[in-house]
Design goal:
298 residues; 19 strands; mainly beta; 5-stranded antiparallel sheet; Immunoglobulin-like; single chain; 3 helices
Length: 298
């Protein structure tokens, strides 16, 4: 005889069993997630700042430091240093860590060329994590310093600047050493404070007479351009090459203008980049001048 109560009880027991399996799976899943060990982390520090890359002047010393955190415990730490075609291993540790799960390794390198440091950490579960830091080198600019250049009417100061020695020449002296002169300064009613190359046509109408530009043996075609560059911190790579888009004359200069220039191939200091920052334009007739802070490529 059909037993309705027994059928209901069987279905109820089946539902309870399914629910139990589902709950068991849920908690099993949660337990698995909670037991997942966090990954190893590496923090790179170069010259006292947390970063993965740095640019320095060639020959400078760089201090590097790596802070390693490995929740699964550290098995080994290796630092490889690549400079050009040469690779060395300045650090290779398999013991002596500060803690099972944390260590700090450090060292110094002389950046005579671009360097890549690669740190590789292996934990006790044999998981491997690596980080690469890059040290690139730059070239310093030679700081000539503040230079006073007289305008074309100044009877005391010269108007012709030479990058090769950082000196300012009077016109007769400039003619005798014309290959040294990279730019001149003059002040006009229209162009106001102006710097121009010896090859500039407008400059030739200003500097006339026996020692005028038309009589010079060499008229260097220096290229000039006002640029947005941090003069104080600029390295060679920060100075744009203005040989293609530079002008032969820069009129209406104002204080704090930064001028990028490229000397001509005919210059005594050929094909060199430089920066000149206008710091003052005092003008009182015969003693008119411009004061510029100048740096040139070594």
């Amino acid at each position: 005889m059909f037993n309705l109560n027994m059928l209901i009880m069987k279905k109820f027991n089946l539902l309870v069993l399914c629910a139990a399996v589902a709950v068991s799976g849920f908690f099993s899943s949660c337990t698995k997630d909670n037991n997942t060990t966090p990954e190893t982390t590496i923090v790179a520090n170069l010259n006292g700042t947390d970063k993965d890359a740095i640019k320095v002047i060639a020959g400078e010393t760089v201090i590097y430091k790596f802070t390693v955190t490995a929740p699964a415990k550290i098995k080994s730490i290796k630092v490889a240093q690549k400079k050009g075609a040469d690779t060395t291993t300045p650090i290779n540790k398999t013991s002596g860590f500060l803690k099972d799960t944390m260590d700090i390794v450090s060292g110094t390198v002389i950046a005579s060329a671009n360097i890549t440091l690669t740190i590789t950490v292996v934990d006790k579960t044999d998981n491997t994590v690596s980080k690469e830091v890059v040290i690139t080198t730059d070239v310093a600019l030679d700081p000539i310093g503040l230079v006073e250049i007289g305008d074309d009417d100044n009877a005391t100061l010269g108007s012709s600047f030479a990058s090769i020695d950082g000196l300012v020449y009077k016109l007769a002296e400039a003619k005798a050493s014309s290959n040294k002169i990279d730019f001149l300064y003059f002040y006009g009613s229209t162009n106001k404070a102006t710097i121009a190359s010896p090859a500039d046509a407008t400059a030739a109408t200003v500097f006339t007479g026996t020692s005028g530009l038309s009589s010079w043996t060499t008229k260097n075609a220096t290229k000039l351009k006002v640029v947005t560059v941090n003069f104080e911190t600029a390295k060679l790579s920060d100075v744009p090459d203005v040989s293609a888009d530079g002008a032969s004359i820069l009129p209406n200069l104002t204080i704090d203008n930064v001028i990028a220039f490229k000397t001509a191939s005919t210059s005594a200091y050929p094909s060199k980049k430089g920066l000149a920052k206008v710091t003052a334009i005092p003008s009182d007739g015969a003693t008119g001048k411009i004061i510029v802070d100048i740096k040139v490529e070594l």
